[in-house]
Amino acid sequence: MLSKFLISKFVKNYQDTTNKKVRDDYGYLGGSVGIILNLVLFTTKLIIGIISNSIAITADAFNNLSDVASSVITILGFKLASKPADREHPFGHGRLEYISGLIVSFIVILVGFEFIKTSFDRIIHPSKVIFNIVPFILILASIGFKLWISGFNKIMGKAINSSALQASSTDALSDVVSSSCVAISLFLSIWIDFSIDGYIGILVSLIIIYAGYSLIKKTMNPLLGESPDIELVNGIRSKLLSFDHITGCHDLVIHNYGPGRCMGSIHAEVPCDMSIVKIHEIIDEAEKEISDEFSLYLVIHMDPINKTDKEVNASRLELLNILKSFSIIKSIHDFRIVGEGDHKNLIFDVVIDFDPKFSESDELKLQDDINVALKKSYPYYNAVMTIDRDYIGV
């Protein structure tokens, strides 16, 4: 309830998440709330750590301080990512949001390594941890706050599909685990004579480092170029096939230049005997509607397909029947016949499952095997094919 109240209070038109201004306001709100609450938690835990003489609590306090820096970077990331396109960056600066998330991840790891050293020093030079009910209750309260922050950032990150806010949510959840370990350390000090504070501190530090590593993996993927979302892929294909005279589509490629800044291209199969002007009008309409609906810039390439010629249709069916014996092949497209008389080329693209172990030599062997199988039925035909790997898996 509180999350929804804050969003509706501070984000104007919060339901219009495709609007860049609304999206930026979500990021600013998430960062601002993070700064305020993490400053409160840092101050509280630092005081508790000094009073109880606990290095684990102090480590957890400075972890919250790093979260303040993370929130500042998140705000800067949204601010810089919202800069308009320029000559050097024709697709805008949207990827800066991913970079801000990456910086946050490295800060988290740095804090973890620093407190491994501090915790190791406490193991070598142990000192008694003083249990006090008030600090213990405050630690439990901080766990509750972090759970809420994690949920708050998760709601906003999901609403605007922000990797930076989702990273902040994961970071806050890791703080819940680390603070829980600190609470256990403080509680066990009542019965345990030797100091386990340093050991718990190392455990907390390792949790922090792992959280940072997980965040790096998550924020690096869109920068390196990950596969597009399956729902987006299916949505684009379904919408494209809903237009008249478009009978098939393939070779969808999507480039991510930041949230809401995607560029895509796809091949659409159209009748070869239809007016070029007419089909061009349909393609233009499809590009505009799909781009608007899915918040991207889509370019559609036309592939003319002959579905009325008897020889073409018969050859396609025979080829499909031959290819059934090749389990790796998922489908074919761009089928056409080139040449005259008996000596003709069957030109087509073959789609196979993505397998990193399937090498170029394996591709050549597959092409040879298909040709051998084809010539048993059509000795004067030659298969000229291109191997397409299905990276999306749908």
TrEMBL record:
The keyword Hydrolase does not apply. Pfam families: Cation_efflux (PF01545), ZT_dimer (PF16916). Residues 230-304 form the Cation efflux protein cytoplasmic domain. InterPro entries: Cation_efflux, Cation_efflux_CTD, Cation_efflux_TM, CDF_Transporter. Belongs to the cation diffusion facilitator (CDF) transporter (TC 2.A.4) family. The chain crosses the membrane at residues 26-48, 96-117, 129-151, 198-216. It is a multi-pass membrane protein. This is Cation diffusion facilitator family transporter. Residues 33-223 form the Cation efflux protein transmembrane domain. NCBIfam families: CDF (TIGR01297). Keywords: Membrane, Transmembrane, Transmembrane helix, Transport. It is found in: Membrane. Its main location: membrane.
